[in-house]
Amino acid sequence: MADVKYVCDQDILCGVRVPKDLKTMTELEQKHVPVITAPDKVTRGETFLVTVEVGKYKTHPNEPAHFIEWVELYSGDTFLLRISLAGSLSDPKVTVPVRLTHAHGPLKAWAKCNMHGLWEGLKDIAIED
Known about the structure:
five-stranded mixed β-sheet; Immunoglobulin-like; mainly beta; globular; 2 helices
């Protein structure tokens, strides 16, 4: 199994990429990590807004040859939604209403760059009665 991990560490298109350290992200990480903005806690069943932004720390180039294909949002491992983005979109940022009825874990966003693979961002959220 160590060989598989080594291969994935060297291949940018292998697996889900996360920043090694949020305080000292590389330029590649700054351009690709999806950043989730949402309340820290919500009431069970309450609708609230979630924003997912790619390139918040450093602008991601969005042009025909290099772009964010889509963004997915999860509550833990429970799939909530997928939004497809056009390659010419200059600002890969989406805001959507979400309603959670039970806690599954942190909010998780995945963003797919056509050149640099799949990236993950997390945000803790508490569900209260």
